[in-house]
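Our preliminary data section would be incomplete without showing what the modeling component actually yields. Below, a chain of 158 amino acids is followed by its predicted structure, encoded as tokens that our downstream tools consume directly.
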Amino acid sequence: MIKINKPVAIVALVAVLGIAAIASAAEIVRTGEGRNFYNNIFIPAGAETLYLSGSGASQQADGSWGDMEQQTIDTFSRFQQTLESQGWSLEDIIQVRAFAVSGADGELDFAGFNRGYQQFFGSDKNPMKPVRSFVQIAGLVVDGWLIEIEIRAARVPD
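Predicted structure:
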């Protein structure tokens, strides 16, 4: 017959259950970090998700739309306002899809996009970075837009 010391067995059981709870705690995992984005982000079961449709810059008071950097900043600023109004943050963004066209000079300003983007991701203000796609296309639905961006956000409930 095996004798079991009840207090020791209870402590051991609590320890095992505690380790199991920590090991199964759901979290968003990011891997393959690059300068501006991650290559992979794993979203666990039970995470909350939010999808924001494609959007672009707002026309300025003088009727112009701004360059690629300015349009990128304007678009992400409006996304930030939308997220925060719903209790989310830029840190929750896990995917960015950007569709871009060439400017009046016929050149695609990818560097301008990155300058605007870097004000929102991978910075002291927001160290998080999403996965990202940037695609050059023939045209956008709004004349004047150089960029249209859509985002996905995810977070693990408390």
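The CA atoms of residues 99 and 135 lie 5 Å apart. The domain at 27-155 is CATH 3.30.1330.40 (60s Ribosomal Protein L30; Chain: A;). Preliminary results of this kind motivate Aim 1 of the renewal.
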